[in-house]
Structures are given as C-alpha cells and as structure tokens.
Amino acid sequence: GAGVSQSPSNKVTEKGKDVELRCDPISGHTALYWYRQSLGQGLEFLIYFQGNSAPDKSGLPSDRFSAERTGGSVSTLTIQRTQQEDSAVYLCATENGETQYFGPGTRLLVL
Amino acid sequence: AQSVTQPDIHITVSEGASLELRCNYSYGATPYLFWYVQSPGQGLQLLLKYFSGDTLVQGIKGFEAEFKRSQSSFNLRKPSVHWSDAAEYFCAVSSGTASKLTFGTGTRLQVTL
Predict the structure, then answer these.
(1) Does B44 contact A91 at a Cβ distance shorter than 8 Å?
(2) Which span out of A13-22, A34-43, B1-10, B27-36 was modeled with the highest average pLDDT?
(3) Chains A, B: CB contacts under 8 A, how many?
(4) In this predicted structure, what is the pLDDT of residue A44?
(5) Residue B52: phi, psi to the nearest 5?
(6) Burial class (CB in 10 A: 0-12, 13-18, 19+), A38
C-alpha cells in the first residue's frame, strides 16, 4: 500500500488478557518504530527495528511488552496480561532513511 | 538525553491571522528536528524537517520553521491560518537517521472564524 497500515484500528479488551497489534510498513522501509500516545505520558518511543533486529528496546515499559518483525516487513506488538494503564494509542512508523512516516494507530482500551 | 519543550499547551487564533508555535530542544550535537501535525483520530503527518543547511525550512500547507542554534529553538510559523489548520502540533528531535524521535507534549491549535 501507499502508507503504513495498522490493525486493528480499535481494540477493547479486559484486564489480564493478551493483545496483538499489527503494523504493515511502507514497502522497502527497513526501519520500523513503535510509539505509544497516552493522555498522561504524551508520545513515547517503545522499540525500534532495523530489518528483523531490534537494536533499541529501551522504551518498552515492562516485560509484558514484546515485539517482533518478520521478513523485514510486518511487525507485531504484543502486550501480555493487559492492565488499565496500557490504554493508549499505539503508533507504528517506518523510515526511508530520513523521515518517519506514521500509521493511523491502534486505539487500545483495557477495561 | 535529548528533550523537547513546547511551552504552549493550547493556542487560539483567528482565521487569517499569523501563527507561531514555539519549540525548544535540548541536544548536545546538531539535532534533526521535525514538526508533525495530528488531526483528531488521525496519525501524525510530517509538516517539515531540518537536518542541516539553510536554517529556514519550508514545509507543506504553507508552514515554515526556523532553526536557531543560539536559542535552541525551532519555531513553526504560518503567515495566514486557515480553519482546517486546527489540530495538534508536535515538535520532535532525533540524533539522526535510524534514531527514535523524542516528542514535545504538543500544542493544540484552535482556529476561530
């Protein structure tokens, strides 16, 4: 596609459940980032992929959060045992070497 | 560590008036600087970026920004605001390509008719 796509666009889950968020990057973009946007914390970096490797995971808030990328393309962010404070918009961005292009985000609500 | 400050949480301007959104950054070397805009329920759209060279950069939708190293600032300007410019604006800094963005807290722009 022409841009970064993310699915689902909205996700409502119960506390304690696991969720998977998906990011489909712009074709050919080797760098991929996950960010989180919440009312209390603003826009925060979570993790960065170069190809299938994650050289910077420094933003993952706890070991309940993990991410992977396969084939240098699709990435999945997994949150285990979700908590109410995980409620946020999760944004994916991919980079062409200079500029990060953002997807529309997944809005996660943990009840 | 790099950081960004956007001192104005909310700004209201009349349509047709000029606009300046402030951004101050903290970074040891020459930063890569960005302005993104986010409309309600939408992702982030890049308005403009500064890497090096001419300190006045032009972006989309008639926006421009000026990098001032002495003031550690990268303020966004538009000479005449349109109602469709109402959105949230984020300034961001990175250390270069293949590097995470550090965002400011954003400035919400309201445009009155």
Answers:
(1) yes
(2) A13-22
(3) 49
(4) 95
(5) -170, 175
(6) middle
